[in-house]
């Protein structure tokens, strides 16, 4: 490496030059930096910035409050200011205002303002505006910290520095395997970043820079051109990740307004699609009734029966296929007599073959593209031949289309005795590339395309407490379940291992009411679901809010049936706790299922654990996620923890339990033992040896 360059920093945010001159040494070709001259302790929580003449960018640094520690965050702001074809980028004009530093490049039409957040000295607002064609881009060094947040991704790596994203457009996208897109990141050092909703955001992780998280603002598709580009985000510096989350949930997220349906939490949902649709049997009135009888015969509880797509005469209509369901009202009455509620799948689009298509098109209820055309094609694969017809996507940004959709579905509830809906394929239609690239929506340019997602979720909320959504953007306030992306029936990425990391992303973005994918995974053609993966999957989600079956336990053997009944009974036993914690989420914004660092937020080991999770603060769950495994290592955070599987032994936290026995019937989980509940003798027994000492209480 060449000799480091000594650069004078021309300002430090909110402290400015009145305290002392500030000099930095910057290493070439990376984001790291070393402070040469010390400042007084009061300044250490604040961000320092300076312009680098050689690199034509702004350097930002958040210092650590601990002496001798490297900066908590370093960043290069405006990395696109200097490009290979532009060598004469001028130095900015710099002005200092109370609590604010402003950089302006008048010839480029670019302005950077860094301001202290009005309610706390912990946060700064970084705001770029530009009328120039080039994108705006700020990059931060990931470093040694563990990073959390970002999009819900089919391959949900945790912490997110394990994931690589290449200029990902930050909208739901089926081609990119992205569902929820809350623009929030934070790390184990207590740094958080929340991006303004009007930013046309792209995210790049470990691509532009091998150890960088880059935020890019550009008005290329899926965003629309705008007169002025905006890159704005709030950067905060707290002591640990829990503090960072707590501030964000109080200042950036809405809290859920109420609880969704309680019964879905208490008892499993049973869906016909997996049990029949991928076999030679048709889903019809007879098979649905028989499925309900089989559930009861095998001794399972249930909240509702979900009838799959074959119930409708065409995709997007609420007219039932009378050849399959000659009397839907009779079927729902029979199911109610057995204790089942009935839900049906419906869609946010209408197939061209449906009788409603023409009138709805004439009324302007469909999304149109920039050429005022209606219609989309997607899933063009042989196995998806039913989806090849043109479809009209309901434009939920139009109030008249919203009301038509709600009125139509409420009529089904009244006419047929249906209790609720599962609005399906939103991930595939909203994020299939057609909406995001071509749509012209009924909302301001700076709110597109996210306004469609928000309007869609608002519409679903009018259909009661049962509906669920698979897409979201700043919609935490709705009393609605959010469903994970479909998981494949496999053990590694895309499968069972992603259940826990996915529930983390939802909860830490303010969406605690999570529905995991169906037990065993969404099987395509019956491929992949085995007895072992089915049982381990059910164990993994047992302490999450909802259990859904579409593959039946009796599709395997009697042992699977018995283990499944034990696990659903365990879930019911703790459903009261789950509902209490859900109410706490409504009241305080607290998450429901979190990483274990939630109860030990400055524990470096806990920061990296991705295969254990908490229910609240007193229950730790450590399912087996490896094929063929009959034991696993378990890390316990600080405190005392009682195992609930074997002899109710107590373990002291901040230690590993090696090779904890976990045969196929065992779901390892632990409950907190409060220190005041332990006698002095019990504490002495726990502490008396270096290795973990076990006792029974």
From TrEMBL:
Any one GO biological process: carbohydrate metabolic process
Residue ranges of the Glycosyl hydrolase family 31 C-terminal domain?
589-672
Question: What positions does the domain Glycoside hydrolase family 31 TIM barrel occupy?
Answer: 268-574
Molecular function (GO) terms for this protein are: hydrolase activity, hydrolyzing O-glycosyl compounds
- What Gene3D superfamilies does UniProt report for this protein, alphabetically? Glycosidases, Golgi alpha-mannosidase II
Listed Pfam families: Glyco_hydro_31_2nd, Glyco_hydro_31_3rd
In terms of domain of life, where is this protein from? Eukaryota
Xref: InterPro entries: Alpha-glycosidase_related (IPR050985), GH (IPR017853), Glyco_hydro_31_C (IPR048395), Glyco_hydro_31_TIM (IPR000322), Glyco_hydro_b (IPR013780)
Q: Which UniProt keywords apply?
A: Glycosidase, Hydrolase
Q: Which family does it belong to?
A: Belongs to the glycosyl hydrolase 31 family.
Question: How is this protein named in the record?
Answer: Alpha-glucosidase family 31
Please name the source species: Nilaparvata lugens (Brown planthopper)
Lineage of producing organism: Eukaryota, Metazoa, Ecdysozoa, Arthropoda, Hexapoda
